[in-house]
Amino acid sequence: MTASFFIFAFCICTLIPYSVIAVCDNLCSGRGTCQADDVCKCYDNWGVGLTHTSGDCSDRICPYELAWVDKPNYKGTFHGYAECAGRGVCNRETGECQCFDGYEGKACSRTSCPNDCSGHGTCEFIDDLTYKTVHGDYSVQGFSDEAQTFTFHDWDSRKTRGCVCDPTYADVDCSKRMCGYGTDPLDTRDNLLKPLKYQTQQLMFQSSINNCQNEGKTFALKFTSTMNEVYTTIPIAMSCTSLELNDFVHDVQLALLNLPNQVINGITVAGSLDPSGYYVQLNVTFTGCYNEGPQHIIEVVDYECSSGCTPKLTGINMNHMYYRKMSNVSEVQVPDFASYECGRRGKCDYTTGECKCFEGYGGPICGVQTLIV
After folding, report:
1. Is there a contact between 316 and 328 (Cβ–Cβ < 8 Å)?
2. Predicted pLDDT of residue 332
């Protein structure tokens, strides 16, 4: 045979293995399969580099979440998915995100709360916050119970979080002890000839002259103090008839006055039947020195509580007035008294929660004038 024949045969033999068996870089690091074109097809969450191309499948890919900030796509849409949500650096060895300060969770998907709420509160998503979790909102008129919880539907509903402080604690990180609130002893009224006004809240309960389905059923009232302490009354039996209205009014008044720590130390309750006969109306007026200024709106605990909870309640039907456009509880008289931290006549020591009164004033909330100049 000629020499050219042997050279041709050798070339054919050496080419055949490469056309049948592909050889990928580093054998895909054992994290993928080698394709016929010598390119690795990596297993899930494996790749190489920032672009996550297959390469030799030696790098881990970190989890993705909605990006906090990113460039818009061709449709002008923001907040696409990004590795570590764009708020952390991926550790290619472990596949875990190393989040920047202020971010945490899988793929750095949520904010952390400042100082972990100082151990005096809980870290809540913005979607779970209601107006009552913000200190300083004492009454809201014209809102139904549903409107008081403002459901948040935007992209960060399960990403952005804030502190909800425990009672007697406040500030964005719940680090400060709260001081008492009260009226300024030097507050003046525009017209002293008119009677002094106290805050009055009106509670409306469903009734019916012919058929009161709530008769004898029990409910409770929930009161939140200006220090954000929540108190719930003992069960109160509902009465819809004019014959037993006085007893019902008396029971409501005693239940509120008997809350612990004299959180309500003065109150009057007046009751009447709505002229239409469909509602029992109670006017609750705060007259105590601990409740002179605006107070949080009273809440009616109307659901059944029969097992594993307290107080034990049968529950009542609390259909809302005016096709649910108005709450069953509303403020009907604004007080002449105000509600200021330390009565506006002192400074709060946020370490102890005690008021340091200015000269000439005293008392727990600096509500007593001790010196007249």
Report:
1. no
2. 93
| Secondary structure string (H, E, C) spanning the chain | CCHHHHHHHHHHHHHHHHHHCCCCHHHHHHCEEECCCCCEEECCCEEECCCCECCCCCEECCCEEECCCCCCCCCCCCCCEEEHHHCEEEECCCCEEEECCCEECHHHCEECCHHHHHHCEEEEEHHHCCHHHCCCCCCCCCCCCCCCCCCCCCCCCCCCEEEEECCCEECCCCCEECCCEECCCCCCCCCCCCCCCCCEEEEEEECCCCCCCCCCCEEEEEEECCCCCEEECCCEECCCCHHHHHHHHHHHHHHHHCCHHHCCCCEEEEEEECCCCCEEEEEEEECCHHHCCCCCCCEEECCCECCCCCCCECCCCCCCEHHHCECCEEEEECCCCCCEEHHHCEEEECCCCEEEECCCEECCCCCEECCCC
| pLDDT given for residue 138 in this prediction | 42
pLDDT score at 268 = 96
Q: Give every CB contact of residue 304 below 8 A, 6+ residues apart in sequence.
A: 313, 314, 315
Residue 276 has which token pair? Answer: 């239409």
d(CA 101, CA 98): 10
pLDDT, position 47: 95
Q: Which two tokens stand for residue 122?
A: 């809980």
Of 195, 189, 186, nearest to 287 (Cα)?
195
- In the chain (373 residues long), the average pLDDT of successive 10-residue segments reads 49 46 87 94 94 93 95 91 96 96 96 97 89 45 42 85 95 96 88 89 75 81 93 92 86 97 95 78 93 91 87 80 56 92 96 96 93 72
Residue carrying the six token digits 């004019």? 242
The pLDDT value given to residue 139: 41
